[in-house]
From TrEMBL:
Highest taxon above the source species: Bacteria
Species per Swiss-Prot/TrEMBL record: Runella rosea
MF (Gene Ontology): tRNA (guanine(37)-N1)-methyltransferase activity
Protein's UniProt keywords contain Cytoplasm: yes
Gene3D superfamilies noted in UniProt: 3.40.1280.10, tRNA(m1g37)methyltransferase, domain 2 (1.10.1270.20)
Biological role: Specifically methylates guanosine-37 in various tRNAs.
Oligomer and partners: Homodimer.
Subcellular location: Cytoplasm
Limits of the tRNA methyltransferase TRMD/TRM10-type domain: 1-223
E.C. number(s) listed in UniProt: 2.1.1.228
Keywords (A to Z) from UniProt: Cytoplasm, Methyltransferase, S-adenosyl-L-methionine, Transferase, tRNA processing
HAMAP family named among the record's database cross-references: TrmD (MF_00605)
Name of this protein: tRNA (guanine-N(1)-)-methyltransferase
Length: 224
């Protein structure tokens, strides 16, 4: 899988993709992440990528020309499954969407900034708009990282135990059950006996029941 991220603040993303699972995924060639500095596609010497909004009002708007130039250059090199725009008014991001996107080959993610992007980009270039929640960030970079992380970890071979992702919260509309590790007793607090029994079928049923109860208590909307 290849993910191309377009941003006017590329250095914000450097550290995120240089460590842990995301770094190992790239080193093993399971995924490629390429960050593109939008200012490299500016049409003037000042490397300008934003301008005032027509009609007035507070805040700047990302210009259409640099973004269009970058997207077109990328699309001339390969076919993309989606051109994604990170925006607060996009579709709410959920695990099912992450699952679908993890099956694709090539993605472009455009990071919004300031008051957003010229609407003509959304009309003619963007194929999918995503929001990671009902709140506003300073830019789309953190949101792009969230989406990329949630997708890449699902690619076969990225996690040491591929079944791990299949038991995460939301995969089956349930929250994950509680988990424990050593020691079996700490300050009088004991791990449930069932988890020490070695009886796989009973452990599996216990975990399912715990997931169901936790979901009913914390996120009953998932069971509707």
């Amino acid at each position: 899988m290849r993910i191309d991220i377009i941003t006017c603040l590329p250095r914000l993303l450097d550290s995120f993709f240089a460590h842990s699972i995301l770094k190992r995924a790239q080193d093993a060639n399971h995924a490629q992440v390429h960050v593109h500095d939008l200012r490299d596609y500016s049409t003037n010497k000042q490397r300008q990528v934003d301008d005032y909004a027509f009609g007035g009002g507070a805040g700047m708007v990302l210009m259409i020309e640099p973004i269009a130039k970058c997207i077109r250059q990328l699309q001339a090199e390969r076919t993309y499954d989606e051109v994604i725009y990170m925006t607060p008014d996009g579709e709410r991001y959920e695990q099912k969407m992450a699952n679908r996107l993890s099956m694709t080959e090539n993605l472009i993610i455009l990071c919004g900034h300031y008051k957003g992007v010229d609407e003509r980009l959304r009309e003619h270039f963007i194929t999918k708009e995503i929001s990671i929640g009902d709140y506003v960030l300073s830019g789309g970079e953190l949101a792009a990282c969230v989406v990329a992380d949630s997708i890449i970890r699902l690619i076969p071979g990225v996690l040491n135990d591929e079944t791990s992702a299949l038991t995460d919260s939301f995969q089956d509309n349930l929250l994950a059950p509680p988990v424990y590790t050593r020691p079996a007793e700490f300050e009088g607090w004991k791990v449930p006996d069932i988890l020490l029994s070695g009886h796989e079928a009973k452990i599996s049923d216990w975990r399912f029941q715990q997931s169901l109860e936790r979901t009913r208590t914390r996120r009953p909307d998932l069971l509707d």
